[in-house]
């Protein structure tokens, strides 16, 4: 009997110690977040906002504001499309991110897949015309009589030769053929 009382006392003591450890662990985890923030702030690491709560946006130092380049936009359609740039020209500084929209209308009563192929003038400007997003990266599938505006997000590499003052970006939009398997006559 005395052994049962002794075992029960040891169990209660062990239970008490485990509860204390659990409470300490919970308290430590609760205090860790503000403690971590204080350490990061003191060391200047992993700081997402300034002390006054505002976020500063760094200026793009790659923009060459000493010169401008005129970009002219052109659109040609090979097939039953209406295809054109919404803006025909814009002036940008090399390194500056810009967006232009192209508009296409499928004038057919059937779904078609099409692709746009770019060309540049002068040819020497091609490696300096950097597209971030472009509808020309993939085929476009359009429903019957669908109209769509599609963006081209780009910048001009500041290494563009200084004698290039105007770049023409031209797209030819054409139907992609041979995707549909021909129907064979039943015998």
From TrEMBL:
UniProt membrane topology term: Single-pass type II membrane protein
Pfam hit, one: CtaG_Cox11
Main subcellular localisation: membrane
Keyword Transmembrane: yes
Keyword Ribosomal protein assigned: no
Subcellular location per the Swiss-Prot or TrEMBL entry: Cell inner membrane
Protein origin, superkingdom: Bacteria
Family annotation (InterPro entries): CtaG/Cox11_dom_sf, Cyt_c_oxidase_assmbl_CtaG
Annotated transmembrane regions: 14-32
GO CC, one annotated term: plasma membrane
Gene Ontology molecular function terms on file: copper ion binding
Keywords from the named record: Copper, Membrane, Signal-anchor, Transmembrane, Transmembrane helix
Function: Exerts its effect at some terminal stage of cytochrome c oxidase synthesis, probably by being involved in the insertion of the copper B into subunit I.
Family: Belongs to the COX11/CtaG family.
The name this protein goes by in its record: Cytochrome c oxidase assembly protein CtaG
């Amino acid at each position: 009997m005395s052994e049962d009382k002794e075992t029960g006392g040891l169990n209660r003591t062990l239970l008490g110690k485990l509860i204390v450890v659990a409470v300490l662990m919970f308290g430590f985890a609760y205090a860790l977040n503000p403690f971590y923030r204080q350490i990061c702030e003191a060391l200047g690491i992993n700081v997402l906002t300034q002390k006054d709560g505002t976020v500063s946006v760094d200026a793009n130092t790659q923009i060459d504001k000493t010169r401008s380049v005129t970009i002219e936009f052109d659109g040609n359609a090979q097939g039953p499309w209406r295809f054109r740039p919404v803006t025909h020209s814009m002036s940008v500084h090399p390194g500056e991110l810009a967006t232009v929209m192209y508009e296409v209308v499928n004038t057919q009563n059937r779904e078609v897949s099409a692709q746009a192929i770019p060309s540049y003038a002068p040819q020497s400007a091609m490696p300096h015309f950097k597209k971030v997003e472009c509808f020309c990266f993939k085929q476009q599938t359009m429903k019957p009589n669908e109209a769509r505006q599609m963006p081209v997000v780009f910048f001009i590499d500041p290494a563009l030769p200084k004698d290039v003052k105007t770049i023409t970006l031209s797209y030819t939009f054409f139907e992609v053929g041979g995707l549909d398997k021909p129907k064979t006559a039943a015998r």
